[in-house]
Amino acid sequence: CIEISLLNNRQVQIAREEMKLSRMKLFEAKRGLFPNLKIKGNLTTGLTSGVRFRERRYGVEAEQPIYYSGRLWNTYRQAKLNYQVSAKKFDKIRLEVTQKVSEAYNSLQKAYASYRQQYSLIKKGEHIFKLSKKLYDKKLITELEYLNVESQLNQIIFQIESAKGTSNLRV
Description:
- The chain is of the alpha+beta class.
- Helices cover about 75% and strands about 15% of the residues.
């Protein structure tokens, strides 16, 4: 349930993408600290003045900035900090979604437990109501006592219907 909500939640998806983007920017900034190497190669073949020729050229270029007044290092540190912030934001959103789903699940479980308990209570209440009806018909209890039992049974039925409604709303 939690895994599905984390996969489908839009905020989590956005935070995950932001974290990926900041990771790529961190990689790019880290790459800027190291020398740039270029390997070039060229192969030319042809025919000039009736003579066939083939020319090969190979080369390596290396480039390393010696001093950029700390710009490369500051860019790297900023990218690293942005990555850490995006990772913390992702964790926060993930935990919030997990908490909301857990709370909803626990509330639903409580509602179902309450419903089951009240259902068993109504069975007992119906049994007592039938007994009181028999007693009332035989004039062994007063009408007030009989109506009190009937009222309590109706309250139990109302509470069960409320628990059903709560359970259906949260599903």
